[in-house]
Amino acid sequence: MRALVWNGKRDVRVENVPDPELESPTDVIIRVTSTGLCGSDLHLYEVLGPFLEAGDILGHEPMGVVEEVGSEVTHVSRGDRVVIPFNISCGSCFMCDRGYQSQCETTQNTDQDKGASLFGYTKLYGQVAGGQAEYLRVPQGHYGPVKVPEGPADDRFLFLSDVLPTAWQAVHYADVPNGGTVAIFGLGPIGQMASRIAHHLGHRVIAVDLVDERLQMARKWGVEVLDLRDHDDRIADAVRELTDGRGADSTIDAVGMEAHGTPALELIQQAAGLLPDRAAEKLFEEAGVDRMGALHASINAARRGGTVSISGVYGGMLDPMPLMTMFDRQLTFRMGQANVKRWMDELLPLVTDDADPLGVESFTTHRVPLEEAPAAYEMFQKKKDGAFKIVFTP
Ligand SMILES: NC(=O)c1ccc[n+]([C@@H]2O[C@H](COP(=O)([O-])OP(=O)(O)OC[C@H]3O[C@@H](n4cnc5c(N)ncnc54)[C@H](O)[C@@H]3O)[C@@H](O)[C@H]2O)c1
Ligand SMILES: [Zn+2]
Ligand SMILES: [Zn+2]
């Protein structure tokens, strides 16, 4: 089959690789019909290189049609249309029982001291072949795949794999009080959907980004926007000005470790990219090379007693955190990978609603053949041509 494989920093290629096969009675094989490119893939493309190996297949936002099922798979069968959650979870362990599918004890990567395995996401998370390919083996397929109805276009359902549950969890974890305000940092797919969901749930939404089209898109959805370029490191003050001087009841960091705005850390990150793998791994895990602008702004823009919800991904272990502020303001923090299946009951009615309340049908800005994925990665990273959400057709 054809698949998008990682070869090195900013070097991905579409190559011939062996077709996946059933390896366990709980596996499912799907033929992929649509597969998303995610902000998280950009971390792999650029800074997480030390945790990848040449030949790794990327991608964790696939949907398609079931081709084969193992003998213990009963809830889906050949020919079913399914979306695949990006976390691989068993559905019946201690963690899955408590709604922490991203911490599944059956697929946890204890050797790396990391949570559940993820598709296409480094050796820290199981080095499982990803979904930017013609076919995908789905481990724990007796639980993961979500059956969706025939008829509507793939875009109706595709974002159940990651973007929608991640955004839903971000808003849920933000714990916005009734009549309250949430400030959302980052208006990529995650921040946009979090904004729409929070607005849909009746909250006031203030959102921050620095890309014109992204600010405009949010404005169309009833969001008050702040352009980071107008405020820079005084962005939290700008949020306070809009919230009676207190700050937002809740804030969401939907940016992660590649935030703009801290040139010194940008330099360390580049340096890590130039080191041999072992040294870079160490520097990455220990030195705290993340760019923390958005996270610190999320902390500063929250009111006293407020909640900070972090869905942006960070990697460093020793990143400096403003503990005095966090403690003095009595903030609550919630974060982590989305527990994808936990939010399906809330999300399925929204994506099947004819009125399309979250605008999933018009969310994709670029649909391109998988063969053109390498150029699309570059376009996405540079945010060229209005690239916002790219979906590949294998
Ligand atoms: N927790 C999870 O399960 C989960 C799942 C998917 C994605 N993510 C993470 O969520 C984050 C966002 O994902 P995405 O696909 O929307 O990414 P993205 O890169 O498309 O969007 C990030 C946005 O943040 C903006 N930005 C950069 N610096 C900023 C700053 N200092 N203040 C405000 N905005 C800033 C960028 O202009 C961009 O629009 C990434 O870190 C991704 O890895 C987490
Ligand atoms: Zn993703
Ligand atoms: Zn489990």
How would you sum up this structure, described in words?
With 394 residues, the protein is α/β, with parallel strands linked by helices. The protein has two domains: 2-162 and 339-393, Medium-chain alcohol dehydrogenases, catalytic domain (Quinone Oxidoreductase, Chain A, domain 1); 164-335, Rossmann fold (3-Layer(aba) Sandwich). Helices cover 29% and strands 21% of the residues. The protein is built from 14 helices and 15 strands. The protein has helices at 39-46, 94-97, 155-158, 163-174, 189-200, 212-220, 228-231, 235-241, 263-274, 277-287, 293-300, 323-328, 344-352, 373-381; strands at 2-8, 11-16, 28-37, 62-69, 81-83, 135-138, 146-147, 181-185, 204-209, 224-227, 248-253, 302-310, 332-335, 366-369, 390-393. Strands 3, 4, 5, 6, 7, 14 and 15 form a seven-stranded mixed β-sheet that branches. Strand 8 (181-185), helix 5 and strand 9 form a beta-alpha-beta unit. Helix 9 (263-274) runs antiparallel to helix 10. The radius of gyration is 20 Å and the shape is globular. The N and C termini lie close together (10 Å). The structure holds nicotinamide-adenine-dinucleotide (NAD) and zinc ion (2 copies).
